[in-house]
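Lab notebook: predicted structure, single chain.

Context: the supervisor wants predicted structures on file for every construct in the current expression panel, including those that have not yet been purified. This is the next one on the list. No modifications to the sequence; it matches the entry in the shared construct table.
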Amino acid sequence: MIDLHCHIIFGTDDGAKELENSINILREAYEAGFTKICCTPHYIVPQYVKTKSENLEKLNIIKEKLKEENIDIELYLGNEIYVTNNMKELIEEGRVSTLSDTKYVLVELPLTQKIIDAEDMIENLTFEGYTVILAHPERYIYVQKDLKYLDKFIEMGVYLQGNYESLIGKYGKGAEKTLKKLLKDKKINLMGTDTHKEKTTYTKMNKILKILKHYAKKEYYENITINCQENILKNM
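Prediction complete. Output recorded below exactly as produced.
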């Protein structure tokens, strides 16, 4: 499997704190069957503003430690960018990273309150040739109340990324129900862990995947766990 959403670069956001935590989490990921992971630290002003170069420096430290520990996972760099009207400039200035320097950008919306011009902000980025991946749409309260909110994004080519642990109720019944509905309608393009800590998503994958296979059959299951992620990393 391939994971394109996690917070395991130590000391960058609300995820892993120390190098040891990063390695422990990646060991769990390897044991769960993940072979490639794109690390996506939050970029939220003013809380989390580590630059692309700062994140890359720490990622390289993690890569070296993985070799020492014989943990065979390929790591890439990205960001989870909190939606803003200057995302294009942030990318061009090297403040944030697309997913592994591809055209794909992971974007997060507010969990509880709609931003009136969020659609325009994302559409402006798509006009510049980027493909936006909307992080965990099932967790947004306004999406849970009205799934039609996502229609405009889908029409403009935005990808929807569901969180694995939503399927087992981590984010509440509303998120669980919404993700299952989106999966039934085949509107989810890819799944991600959104892992922040040790002993969380990666250690629960057996249970989660059994549930996922109930809602995503065969080819669709392969697409949202591996194939879509592969194409993104290949910039297809």
